[in-house]
Amino acid sequence: MARLDESLLTGLPPFSRLERSQIRAILDQATSRRYDEGTAVFREGMPAERFYLLLDGTIRVVRTTETGEQVIALHIPPGQLFGIAPAIGRDSYPASAICAAECLALSWPVRLWSGFSAAYDGFATESYKTLGGRLGEFQARVTDLATKAVEQRVASALLRMVNQSGRKVEGGIEIAFPITRANISEMTGTTLHTVSRLLSAWEKQGIVRSTRKHITVTEPHQLVLLSGAAG
Amino acid sequence: MARLDESLLTGLPPFSRLERSQIRAILDQATSRRYDEGTAVFREGMPAERFYLLLDGTIRVVRTTETGEQVIALHIPPGQLFGIAPAIGRDSYPASAICAAECLALSWPVRLWSGFSAAYDGFATESYKTLGGRLGEFQARVTDLATKAVEQRVASALLRMVNQSGRKVEGGIEIAFPITRANISEMTGTTLHTVSRLLSAWEKQGIVRSTRKHITVTEPHQLVLLSGAAG
DNA sequence: CGCGTTCTTTGCTCTTCCGCAACCTTGGAG
DNA sequence: CTCCAAGGTTGCGGAAGAGCAAAGAACGCG
C-alpha cells in the first residue's frame, strides 16, 4: 500500500496540535481503505474492533428497528472520526455505518485508542468534542421529532445536510451525496410519499430543484422559514 | 456545613476505583446543596461553571423550543453525574436541569474536571460511559419517535421510568417521582389529552393505577407488549 | 374551612399524514 | 437496444391523534 502523506491529517481537529513526526507515527499504524457506495463499514451489534477516520465521502449512520424499519441517525462528513464506541466504553457498535457515496477511510485497532489519548495532546479533548456535537445533534433531533410537523422536519433535514455537506453549484447549493426520498423519510420519521409530495410542491415554488438521487436547494431562506426557524 | 461522609461516593461508578483518601480529597472540594421540587439547578444556555453529582432525588433535563414548548430529554437518577458540559468541550449548558422531586446534589467548579480526569483512575472512563449511555438513550428516543405510534411511545416511556426509578409497592411498581400527564406528553411528543386517554384506558384494563402526579404499573408485561417490545 | 390553582377527564370536530394503488421515469446491465 | 430494477410521482380514502371546550377532582394556602 502506498505510504500515506502527513497532510491528510494536518488540520483535522483530533490531530491539530500534533507534530509532523507524531502524525507520521499515527499514520504508520493506520489501515487505509476504499469502500463502494452502499457498502457497510461496520454493522450494528458487531464487536467494535476498530475506530475510523473518514477522509472522503459521506457515512450514513443507520439503525434498524425490530420491525425492520430503518432510521438514519446521522450523516458524517469527511474529516470526522466515526465508530468511536471505545471512547464511550462500548464493545459493540450501536449502529451501522453505510457509505452514502464512495468513501475513503483510515482505521486503527481499538486497543490504540487509550494510547492515542494519553500520548497525543488534544486527541481526547477534540474527540470528545465531536461526541458532544453529536449528542447536541441528537437532542435537536428529539426536539424536532417531538414538536414539529412533518413539513418543518423535512425542511430542517434538508437544511442540515446542505449546511454540513453542501456543494455550491450554479443557482443554488447541492447536497454532495446521493440521497433518495426514502432516505429523507428515514431521517424525518415519515413516508417517502409525503417527502415526494413536499419536494414536488417546493419545486413548483422554486425553492428546490431535484433529479434522481440529487437535490439542490435554490432558496435556502425559504426553507428556513418553512422549518420553523431552527435548523 | 457538615463534613460529608466518604460513604456517599463509595461504589458510585466514577469513584469506584479510588482510595478512601482520594474520595476525602474530592469531597472536601465539593459543595453540597438541597433543591426544592421544581427548582432549576441550572438553565439552558447558562455558562457552565460547575458540574454536579445527584445524591438524592430525580433531575428532569428539559429543553425549551423557540415556540415555548418543552421537551423532556432525560431523567437522571441518583448516583449519576449531570451538567457535564465541560467533558464534551461546551462552555454553556445545552439544557435545563429541573428537580422533579426534592434533590440533593454535590457540585464542583468545572476547572477541577481535567484535574479529576488526570489524577483519579477510572474517573474519566466511567464518566464517558455515562455519556455513552445517554447517547444510546437519545438514539433509542429518536428511533422511537420516528417509527412508533403514540400509544407505543407512551408505553415505552412509562417502562423506562419504571426500570430506572421504580419503587416496589404492593400490587406493582411505582414511579418514584411526581409526574404529570403533561410531563409524559413532553417526553413522548404528544398532548396531555392523549396521554390522559391512554392512561384511563390502561387503568380500566388493570395495567396501571394512578393518582394525582403518581403512577403505579401493575402489569409491566402488558406494557411491554403495548410498547412493541423495545423498552 | 373556603378558595384558587393545578391537575385530570372526556366528548366532539377537524386536520394531517399514512397506507394503498397505480403509474411514470431514469439509468445501468447484458 | 432492450429490459429491468430502483427511484419517483400522484390520487384517493381512512384513521390516528391534535385542538378546542368544558367540567370535575385534589391539593395547598391563607
Structure description:
Two copies of one chain form a homodimer. In chain A, a hairpin with a 2-residue loop joins β9 and β10 (172-175). Chain A has a four-stranded antiparallel beta sheet. A four-stranded antiparallel beta sheet of chain A has the order 2-7-4-5. Chain A has a four-stranded antiparallel beta sheet with strand order 9-10-12-11. Chain A folds into two domains: 6-141, Jelly Rolls (Sandwich), CATH 2.60.120.10; 148-226, Jelly Rolls, CATH 2.60.120.10. In chain A, α4 (150-165) crosses α5 (181-188) and α5 packs across α6 (192-204). Chain A has 231 residues and is an alpha+beta fold. Chain A has seven helices and twelve strands. Chain A is globular. At the A-B interface, α3 of A face α3 of B. The first copy, chain A, binds a DNA duplex (30 and 30 nucleotides) through α6.
Q: What gross morphology of chain A would you assign?
A: globular
Q: What composes the largest sheet of chain A?
A: 4 strands, antiparallel
The helicity of chain A comes to 25-40%
**Oligomeric status:** homodimer
- Give the helix/strand class of chain A: alpha+beta
